Amino acid sequence: xxxxxxxxxxxxxxxxxxxxxxxxxxxxxxxxxxxxxxxxxxxxxxxxxxxxxxxxxxxxxxxxxxxxxxxxxxx
Length: 75
Hints:
This protein is an all-alpha fold. Helix content is about 90%, strand content about 0%.
């Protein structure tokens, strides 16, 4: 396979980090909004927030691993 195609595939795979960053930003804004409206609900909101961040970050990590596999496997 052509090396430039592998590089393009790896770049697209790493681009999942942008989606994760947007998702984490939206989640943070939603949490800040929810806590500012109901501060007494912080203990219920925070665990859900962290689960959402972990899931969003996992997609970025999967994309990064796939990019590494593409580049290392092409050698």
